[in-house]
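Section 5.1 Outputs to date
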Amino acid sequence: GQVQFKVHQNGNIISQLEQSSFSVEALQGSVFGVPNIPDFQVTIDNRDIIKQQNAWAEIWVSRNRNLSDDQPTHPAFIYQTPKVRFGNMITPLLVNSREWQIETLSTEPQHTLGEHLEQLFSTLLPEQATRDYDLRISCGYAFALAEGIGDNPDLLVSLPVALGPRFTVAAGEATDQFRGDLKTAIRGWWDENQPATSKGMFVFKLAILSPGSNLPLLQIEDLRLSLENITDLQPISV
């Protein structure tokens, strides 16, 4: 017998032979199913989450398909079960809560605010996407109300700076306008409020969503940009 997998992505079918990153692994023993029937783990690596926002898999079992290496089996002798698949397409939900320092994206850590944002956007997002996607970004500012001694952490205070509304980036469009608006909003907040600067940092949260869905494809919760590495914001000592 032979178990075959077929995976649909965005209406297109990919198979194990067509995609080197598509692998099927038989797990040892039975984890979820009936004893003596192996469970399978299907893995698709290195996929572009904006280009391929969902997937739909189907599975069937066939017998007698490969009886000979030299001659294909006559269709009348091939037994194949009906295809089984999920009722709906699967949309990933990836949440990354790891701390990321935006200034490490460049070889030199110190840049203007606009240059830091440009580097962040060019790293996370395609210059021109091939599919529509939605984007939501918020920005806050944190500073140390009291600095920790030894292994004790700093006592950080967080302030809201800007909450960008969800908007759609159409296929072929860039995010230059939104990036410029975000820079203007941050600079305006800074000039108006002049917050404390002790270990100051801007903290961004970003979510990429599929149009029409309220669940993000990817959510990055802790993107940090240290104030000391922004060359065009003038801090006031406290």
